[in-house]
Design brief:
Shape: globular
Distance between the termini: 36 Å
Order of helices and strands: HEHEEHEHEEEHE
CATH topology: YbaK protein
Strand content: 15-25%
Number of helices: 5
Largest sheet: 8 strands, mixed
Number of domains: 1
CATH architecture: Alpha-Beta Complex
């Protein structure tokens, strides 16, 4: 583990402590910008990876924490959140609203709260892994804990 954590990871760790999350941040040897690469390094099923995907919902950020085994149906989530249009956000939009890069977006630690949907399929796994602010960092959590720490809404997103 590096002596000094990336500032994004330190912010996420602080946010996790404030929310009384017991899982510790794990720094991976290699970047894990996708669910498949994260699952391979962690030795878990791809469905146990909580992808943090930022969408542009009528100009507002929307975080969808989805199982790595799923693809998000943007028409469905637009209806769920009452948006006229939901589309994948640009890297600049993601960084502006989360302070974190695509491939490392954590569920918490953003400059301001982001409306969040949490894929109910994550509840099928006792332990799920979420990014911790950088493509080399993750933390273990659970579906219930993700809902609690994000103030998110459980939803079917596929």
């Amino acid at each position: 583990m590096p002596e000094k954590l990336h500032p994004n990871v330190a912010r996420v760790e602080q946010a996790l402590r404030e929310r009384q999350v017991t899982g510790e941040v794990v720094v991976l040897d290699d970047a894990a910008p996708t669910a498949a690469t994260a699952a391979a390094q962690l030795g878990c099923e791809i469905g146990a990876i909580a992808n943090s995907l930022i969408f542009d919902a009528d100009g507002a950020p929307l975080l969808v924490l989805t199982s790595g085994a799923h693809r998000v149906n943007t028409d469905l989530i637009a209806r769920l959140v009452g948006a006229a249009k939901v589309r994948r956000a640009t890297p600049e939009f993601v960084r502006e609203h989360t302070g974190q890069p695509i491939g490392g977006v954590a569920p918490v630690g953003h400059p301001a709260p982001v409306r969040t949907l949490v894929d109910t399929w994550l509840g099928k796994h006792e332990v799920v892994w979420a990014a911790a602010g950088h493509p080399h960092s993750v933390f273990p959590t659970s579906f219930d804990e993700l809902v609690r720490i994000t103030g998110g809404t459980p939803a079917e997103v596929e």
